Amino acid sequence: MIAIGGGGYVPARILRSFLKQPGSTNIPIQAIGLSLYETLPANKASKEGTSTPPVVDRDIEEPGTKVTRTQWLDLSALGEMDNLVGKRVLIVDEVDDTRTTLEYAVKELEKDVEAARARVGGEAAQFSIFVLHNKNKVKKGSIPGNMVEEGRYVAARTVGEEWICYPWEAVDIDEHDRLAAAQKASGAQQQ
Ligand code: 5GP
């Protein structure tokens, strides 16, 4: 499995328990870090400190359209990439929103594993995707059509455009649970 951090870490770990076959070893989980960054206008960026990418003149991008790698697999000769050659690889993230991140992850992983295969030989790797939530919307990014047709894209839930607050993001889990219960109750009342 390859978990896209940080949202994919907890789902990947949970999934590992469900995918474990009796008598076999645990499925290894590797991590990549991807973030959609946004470039802000110069005056806003300078007000908000240094956590945004450098602003180049006229280099203003749509928010959340460009993926940056914060962590990647080891590309060295005996590294993690070679181990993926010929394997079935499940990419795990928490949510498929615009699909930009998943498009990037699939394309770049396929490219790097193919490069490793050219070096060490062997079968092509086969990639699949698991997300907890897929937002039902027009996507900016795309994934290979055959991935969907062959059932290699699985979303546990398909949801609307709402923002999802995951428990592992909560600083105060009791508050998170309280708000979740209140939302569930108000949803039940409306039905
Ligand atoms: P993308 O737009 O590339 O599909 O998603 C990029 C990232 O935005 C996701 O991996 C996730 O970290 C974050 N994201 C998108 N929608 C939500 C949401 O509803 N809740 C949370 N917590 N994160 C989200």
From TrEMBL:
Coiled-coil intervals: 99-126
GO biological process: GMP salvage; hypoxanthine metabolic process; IMP salvage; XMP salvage
Claim: S-adenosyl-L-methionine is one of the keywords in the record: no
UniProt-recorded Gene Ontology molecular function terms: hypoxanthine phosphoribosyltransferase activity
UniProt KW keywords: Coiled coil, Glycosyltransferase, Transferase
CDD domains: PRTases_typeI
GO cellular component: cytoplasm
Cell membrane in keyword set: no
Name of the protein this chain belongs to: Xanthine phosphoribosyltransferase 1
Organism: Lasiosphaeria hispida
